[in-house]
Amino acid sequence: MGEPGLLQGMNADFAACYLLYGPVLAKAVASRAWESGSPDHWCFHLLLLFGLRALTYHAWAMFSNMFFLNRRRLIVRDGADFEQIDKERHWDNFLILQFWMAATAMYAFPSLRHLPLWDARGVAVAILFHVIVTEPLFYLLHRAFHRGHLFSNYHALHHSVKVLQPPTAGYATPLEHLATGGLMAVPVAAACAAGLGSAGLLFGYTLAFDFLRAMGHCNVEVFPGGLFRAVPAVRYLIGTPTYHSIHHMDKDTNFCLFMPLFDALGGTMNNKSWELQKKIGEGADDIPGFVFLVHVVDVISSMHSQMLSRSYASRPYSATPTTVLLWPIALAFVPILWALSKTFVYSSYKLRGRLFQTWLVPRYGFQYFLPFAQDGINMQIEMAILRANKMGVKVISLAALNKNEALNGGGALFVKRHPDLRVRVVHGNTLTAAVILREIPEGTAEVFLTGATSKLGRAIALYLCRKRVRVMMLTASEDRFKKIQEEAPAEAQQYLVRVTKYQSAQHCKTWIVGKWLSPREQRVAPAGTHFHQFVVPPIIRFRRDCAYGKLAAMRLPADVQGLGTCEYTLDRGVVHACHAGGVVHFLEGYAHHEVGAIDVHRIDVVWEAALRHGLTPA
């Protein structure tokens, strides 16, 4: 079935699993089951209940990945990586299994289809049976699943996950799901057998069970540190996320379902549980060594987030039919995001034992081109730099439009305002230039360059002319062209040629694109042209007879940990070259700011440093 939520891709296995709900859904539609007088009203209730169950787990999963809100209370300070996300992709298959268990019960016992709305006595019976039957039976079964054959052939799958998250609750074998589903049914069945069942009990107990189970698998401690010190008895009545997480660290302790009382009675309670819960509950912040400062590209891409769907974010971004349908919902959040006044933690990973974080400026790409918004954006970027400086961050790298030349001179504005910054501000464009230049085949005699007088355009032109490559620089400004040409060695200046029309490149098959190209402009290029590009967003592929390079990017070293999000349209483990440039700056321990104009002499130096640290061309 896969991760809940409409953001899941429209793939065959996803659709096929949801078709298992088809017979009940068809029956509900045919009999208008949503109407209270329908004889098949129970079908509507059943479908609604299991929709709410999926939503419960998904809501907790969203909360688990709100790093801006809960990073101080993380139990395991690693993120769920791609391997774990792939493992848990079909975690909610147990909802289908239990859906059909419930549907079968409805058919076998017709009286269940006509339960009253509420009966408080039934709730009391269910709570009693949960405490005296479900909790102790789960405890005994759980201990049994930790022995020999049952563990190695069944329960080991669940314990193979490194970082607990709500979807981990469903990552288990069918035998375990059958056992859990049966135990979950006991309290409700007991109340119904006593003639005290109700629809409110069915919904309330099931959703409460799911709520507590999802909470227990959450990697965030939600209880305050001093709670169990103030009210000691409560510690035996409710298991915290930390308590359950300890079970995955020490498999011989903390076996209970929701009530640690049974671990205390069985002698399997980990004595460090409350000490660790108190420590994590009080909160502590990890200081990242490196921060990459990004922004939202557009409205639809704002849904490409681990917070909304781990599964969708773990694949390269693309606008699917489903995301297009959800566009109005994403659009509704634009004013909310716009109202936020400061950056926040978006994602994180570890490399060489150090924490690397991505912070998000709550602004969309189009806002960077609104003159009245630019001062506010610069203020947010400046606040993020000062916050990083205060925290002790070593390097902060500016992504895409956050380093726009017209906005802040590639970050130079902030360094000029704050000359005593300890944090190094980096635009990362030196490595970006290196990546683009390495894409150009050896022996190329001529290139056509748009965006020629930008930071990257200037550096690429100066580098290539020194290699005796003729560079046609498209620019309307003769003064800016002359200024760049004068920077080149005297013997190389002849290789820089100013052009003012795209038609000048109608015979050139190597285009380096730093300015967005329309279909009409692309048609000027001859067949077989390769479009290398450093424009955001990337140009649209209109020509089937031409090749289109992706945005400059590099693959992170193999020892990266906890990475579970794809960076925009890039593949897993691949980051934009400006991100990689900041990583290299940090790993090399460079003491200078990398802002403003690119130092052409450092292009090869930074490239070699990147390769030395295990970064590879994408």
Automatic annotation (TrEMBL):
The lineage of its organism: Eukaryota, Viridiplantae, Streptophyta, Embryophyta, Tracheophyta. SUPFAM superfamilies: NAD(P)-binding Rossmann-fold domains. It catalyses: a long-chain fatty aldehyde + 2 NADPH + O2 + H(+) = a long-chain alkane + formate + 2 NADP(+) + H2O. Keywords: Endoplasmic reticulum, Lyase, Membrane, NADP, Transmembrane, Transmembrane helix. One of its GO terms (biological process) is response to stress. The keyword Membrane applies. This is aldehyde oxygenase (deformylating). One of its GO terms (cellular component) is endoplasmic reticulum membrane. It is a multi-pass membrane protein. Its main location: endoplasmic reticulum. The keyword Transmembrane helix applies. It is an enzyme of class 4 (lyase). The chain crosses the membrane at residues 44-69, 122-141, 325-345. PANTHER family: STEROL DESATURASE (PTHR11863). Its EC number is 4.1.99.5. It is found in: Endoplasmic reticulum membrane. Residues 447-617 form the Very-long-chain aldehyde decarbonylase CER1-like C-terminal domain. Belongs to the sterol desaturase family. GO terms for molecular function: aldehyde oxygenase (deformylating) activity; iron ion binding; oxidoreductase activity. Residues 128-268 form the Fatty acid hydroxylase domain.
